Amino acid sequence: MTATVETGTRPLPPLGPTRKLKLPKQAERTLANGLTVIAVRRPAVPLVELRLWMPFGRTHLARGAMLAQTILSGTETKTATQIAAELQKVGGGLSAGLDPDRLMLSGAGLATGLGRMLEILTDVLTNATYPADWVGTERDRLIDRIQVAQSQPAHLARTALLKRIYGKHPYAVQTPEPEHVRAVKPPALRRLHAERVHPAGAVLVLVGDVHPDRALDAAEQALSVWQGDGHPAELPPAPPLEPGPLLLVDRPGSVQSSLRVALPAVPRTHPDHAALQLANLLFGGYFSSRWVENIREDKGYTYGPHSLVEHSVAGSVLVASAEVATEVTAPALLETMYELGRLAALPPKPDELEQARQYALGTLQLGMSTQAGLASLTSAYAGNGLRLDFLAEHAARLARATADDVAEAAARYLSPAKAVTVVLGDAERVAGPLAALTAVRTEPA
Amino acid sequence: MGCRRVKVDLVPTRRAKIPATTYPVERFTLDNGLRVVLTPDRSAPVNGVAVVYDVGIRSEPEGRTGFAHLFEHLMFQGSENLEKLAHFRHVQGAGGTFNGSTHLDYTDYFETLPSNALERALFLEADRMRGPRLTEENLRNQVDVVKEEIRVNVLNRPYGGFPWLTLPPVMFDTFPNAHDGYGSFDDLESATVADAADFFRRYYASGNAVLAVSGDIDVAEATELIERHFGDVPARPAPERPDFAEPDLTAERRTSYTDKLAPLPAVAGAWRVPDPVTDFAGYLAYVVLAEVLTDGDASRLVERLVQRDRTVTSLGGYLGFMGDPFDVRDPTALLLQAHLPPGGDVDKVLRTIDEELDRLATDGLTEGELDRTQARMATHLLRDTDAVLGRALRMAVLEQQRGEPGLLNELPRLVGEVTEEQVRAAAASLRPERRASIEVIAGGAR
Predict the structure, then answer these.
(1) Nearest CB to A300 within list B93, B127, B144
(2) Which of A26, A34, A75, B269 could cross-link to A40 by cystine, CB 3.0-4.6 Å?
(3) Where does the record place the Peptidase M16 N-terminal domain (chain A) (predicted)?
(4) A269 contacts chain B (CB < 8 A)
(5) Is it true that B26-230 and B253-442 share their CATH fold?
(6) In this predicted model, which residue has the larger pLDDT, A275 or A2?
(7) Does residue A1 surpass a pLDDT of 60?
(8) CA-CA-CA-CA torsion sign (A99, A104, A105, A108)
(9) If contacts are CB pairs under 8 Å, which of residues 234-263 in chain B contact chain A?
């Protein structure tokens, strides 16, 4: 039954001419202490975004996590409360985050407060004290947070996938165990800070309503006192994926299964990257992809399936994720393998490739259109040795990738034979149907 | 910590000057009653397009919980000139992104696109405003999708729906304000195509909608395009909006439930606040108060509960059950929510909050406390408006609920004008006997 409308005949308006990608005004300087500072002008709102990327590979996991949790908890002259209050006065704030590649301090504030934010940042970098009472409180809070994370299916599925993909590589475990966190004491944090929170190899990105050269001057004035050499802590390359039986992680009573499929990928600068990105879009990288149209819009198995190429310093990986109803776990896996196989074995249609290409190019423009987006992009690029001008190069590569290039990339990277698959769900209900499709190995969560 | 200074300065303390944006605003109404807001900004080659309908969770009929949200999904399933899937493909194939969301008082549909695709977005929105393709097959498919959405966000995770779905039934007595806006599976499965057609006819009227376009536009060109695509959308008037008012609480309400997945106890409390539309100045004091209490390490309740007493492990405070201070109507609330350490004592946390509110009401703020909170709020407000879509969405709702889209430019200043006296008075009004609260018992504690 069709209600309210009849099919009409109004034509879809054509697109106007494509706007060329225009890079914002920027400046860069490497300070005597080894810190690289990049300042980018986007004056849309009177704010400035700040991202400080510090290489932090191969640190002790629990100590690293605790350092991120407590680096803002006091300096020789300020308590944590005073740090927060002083930042607030200029509309500012800072937070710290950690992954296996880097320690990141990030924040935003009124552009007029940039100098003050940099002063406070420098104080934290050079004088953080890790006071015992504060560290004690934050230790308990981190343990609480880990417990909450461990009750969430998305986190459990991620944990199992990383372990399965990376084996003994430092990327394999990214959340510390509560008992290891409990053992971290302030002297260990002070030692880790002295060893690793250094300007050499670090990149500070400032984006917003600033004049780039003046922002560099302000950064140089504030941060030159920060000293310390680089630390030789190269991560070994991530190991190649090793396909094997589907890993089923048991979560009794789960009303959905968390399906994760990892596939090989290449870094942003690799000649195959643009074609791989397009192949990923065709598969499941955006809403109008084969996978989403199949398992959501046709079959109603799931709400938000998506696939993404994830880049880290030691390697890249493609991860497809979907939370599917328990009773359709095996059918959802079947459709997933079907869509991967179809893309790996048959060339894409020209119009669906053009649609994916336009999406990839258009979303580059959208990502650059806010201060926060520009800051995060600049920082992510810089952490991997790239600069914003790579955007133009990447856009050119996306524009020239042919259907053959994409078909070749799909065959090389998206082949279901290369997939590493993890399912978190109620094993009692899903193990049998999954075993009808593929070999299954079951583990407790 | 025990020696807070009461502010008795003779001259105001120095603070960062709060800046403002000056986004231009053009408003007009088409003959069919569609209200339009344009806000040009040519600093990036992108547009935000938002269509907001004045219908939300509060308007759905009894026996049809979750229907406003389900209907939002159906608006993406094809329309007069568009097959199923076409909307998504046309937006993304133009390099854009899209979504929709259902709120208590409105439902929005929106795109962000490179500015060469503006006309396409207007075409797509006008086409579904004329009428979606409502079919049995699409309805059943989207009921399944929505059920998976509810499983992801509520049923299969700890703290699902806490507190936005679990607290309203404690605080409110009438169906519109109290019911579960995601809906029961029974109600969702009972929905029919005829229900959807009625809902569309009643609420998705040109006179009940606002269109906002932001970003890289020329006002004259955009106006012409809008007239071309929306001008012949059939005119239908806005339905009369029912009165959702409920009296304030006169006695404390408190309830609890066991969440079998939750590893830690949690609690949320809410107090009614002044009408956000008819008493905006009074309401703003509560918006500021929530930040004084909970924004960052230098805020009142974080200092007391997290750092000093260690009775709480994380804490939040905000206006509106969906965290939407400037796009909700009366009745609404100020909410505080906290997760506690294992074995934590919820009564003690609530008592301490009462004590801190008393102290704030009695002793006032410390020197600079209000100024720095207002400066930080300005940053948050400005940051939200930096995204081209943020401006279109916010202005569309401000137009719909207040007829005042330009208020977006004024918010940092108005927040900055809230006085210490107002914040103290707001704190004084958050009495336990006006509070509704809900406790999550940690059924998943190990």
Answers:
(1) B144
(2) A26
(3) 69-176
(4) no
(5) yes
(6) A275
(7) no
(8) negative
(9) 261-263
Q: For chain B, say whether A17 makes contact (Cβ under 8 Å).
A: yes
Q: What are the structural domain ranges in chain B?
A: 26-230, 253-442
Contact (CB<8Å) A301/B144: yes
Task: Annotate B106-169 with DSSP letters as a single string.
Answer: -EEEEEEEEGGGHHHHHHHHHHHHH-B-B-HHHHHHHHHHHHHHHIIIIITSTTTTTTTTTSHH
User: Which pTM was predicted?
Assistant: 0.95
Instruction: Work out whether strand B333-339 and strand B435-442 pair parallel, antiparallel, or are unpaired.
Output: unpaired
User: Do the Cβ atoms of A138 and A70 come closer than 8 Å?
Assistant: yes
pLDDT digits (tens, 9 = 90+) for A204-238: 999 999 999 999 999 999 999 999 887 777 899 99
Nearest to B141, CA basis, from A323, A286, A293, A4: A293
Pairs of CB atoms within 8 A across A/B: 269
Task: Give me B297's structure tokens.
Answer: 């390490």
Using a 10 angstrom Cβ sphere, with 0-12 exposed, 13-18 middle and 19 or more buried, the burial of residue A240 is exposed
**CB of B382 within 8 A of CB of B348?**
no
Confirm or reject contact between A426 and chain B (CB < 8 A). Answer: no
Cβ-count burial of B50 within 10 angstroms (0-12 exposed, 13-18 middle, 19+ buried)? Answer: buried
Is the Cβ–Cβ distance between B431 and B249 less than 8 Å? no
Q: Which amino acid is at B358?
A: D
Residue for token pair 């004088």:
A127
List helix spans (H) across B311-366.
Answer: 346-363
Residue B73 contacts A where some CB pair is shorter than 8 Å: no
Cα–Cα–Cα angle for A206, A134, A199, nearest 5°?
30
Q: Which helix (H) or strand (E) holds B421?
A: helix B420-429
C-alpha Rg value of chain B to the nearest Å: 23
Nearest to B215 by CA among B20, B382, B44, B95: B44
Q: Which of A403, A303, A309 is nearest to A348 (CA)?
A: A403
Subunit contact B297:A152, Cβ cutoff 8 A: no
The pair of three-digit structure tokens given for residue B70, joined into one six-digit string: 């389900």
Superfamily of domain B253-442: Metalloenzyme, LuxS/M16 peptidase-like (3.30.830.10)
CA gyration radius, chain A: 24
The answer to whether B223 and B38 are in contact (CB under 8 A) is yes
Token readout for A169 is 């590589």
CATH number of this structure's domain B26-230: 3.30.830.10
Say yes or no for a CB contact (<8 Å) between B44 and A147: no
pLDDT in tens, A165-194: 999 999 999 999 999 999 999 999 999 999
Which distant-in-sequence residues (6+ apart) come within 8 Å of B379 by Cβ? A47, A91, A92, A93, A108, A109, A110
Pairwise CB contact (< 8 Å): B81 & A9: yes
Measured at the CA of A106, the angle between CA A105 and CA A109, to 5 degrees, comes to 135
Both structure tokens of A187: 């002297």
The whole-chain average pLDDT of chain A stands at 96
Is the CB of B441 inside 8 Å of chain A's CB atoms? no
Residue of B nearest to A359 (CA): B95
The confidence band for B16, taking pLDDT boundaries of 50, 70 and 90, is low
3-state secondary structure at position B185: helix
Whole-angstrom distance, CA of residue A165 vs CA of residue A275:
23
Chain A 352-411, residues with CB within 8 Å of chain B CB atoms: 354-355, 358-359, 361-363, 365-366, 368-372
d(CA A241, CA A238): 9
What ipTM was estimated for this complex?
Answer: 0.95
> pLDDT band at residue B17, thresholds of 50, 70 and 90?
confident
Q: Which residue has the tokens 């025990």?
A: B2
